From TrEMBL:
InterPro entries: Uncharacterised_CreA. Residues 1-24 form the signal peptide. This is CreA protein. Coiled coil: none annotated. PROSITE patterns: PROKAR_LIPOPROTEIN. GO terms for cellular component: cytosol. Keywords: Signal. The keyword Signal applies. The lineage of its organism: Bacteria, Pseudomonadati, Pseudomonadota, Betaproteobacteria, Burkholderiales. It holds the Pfam family CreA.
């Protein structure tokens, strides 16, 4: 291997590790949307995220995943559109008081600049957890977003950090 390639590969590896330290989703399904002769097809993936501070709540996100050669190698930028639905999947309990608003998940949508983000907001008046998904870029984000809410039984008070 060429001596100049080693520092580049080391720097690229560190950059990829830094970009990939977010909580990862579990893919639960996918559908192909466009055939690609070379590389994977374009598709819509469905991913599940368990809220790390709220037992019994899972969020399902559907989003576009770019295929082809660039998508297969991880260099393509995925589209900003995403949809979210969060549901109670078991008894709801809290491991600690929740911030009034907090990013709970993020996942990269391009090699450097774009992320899918999920934010949890506590609606204390209605005893509900509201989840918002959107994407952002280093320079310019997207106004496209999706929102869902999980009503928590009134007998279970949502603990909020003050």
């Amino acid at each position: 291997m060429h001596r100049l390639a080693l520092p580049f590969l080391g720097a690229a590896s560190l950059l990829l590790l830094a970009c990939g330290n977010a909580l990862h989703a579990e893919q639960v399904g996918e559908v192909s949307t466009a055939f690609k002769l070379i590389g994977p097809n374009h598709k819509i993936v469905i991913e599940a995220y368990d809220d790390p501070l709220v037992a019994g709540v899972a969020c399902y996100v559907s989003r576009a995943k770019t295929g082809g050669i660039a998508g297969g190698l991880g260099f393509a930028e995925d589209k900003a559109e995403a949809s979210i639905a969060c549901r109670q999947v078991g008894p709801v309990s809290f491991s600690q008081p929740l911030p009034a608003s907090e990013e709970v998940f993020n996942e990269r949508m391009s090699i450097l600049f774009k992320k899918l983000r999920i934010v949890r907001v506590v609606d204390t008046k209605r005893n509900a957890l509201v989840y918002l998904t959107y994407s952002d870029r280093l320079i310019d984000g997207s106004p496209m977003n999706s929102i869902t809410a999980v009503a928590v039984d009134r007998a279970t008070v949502i603990p909020v950090k003050r």
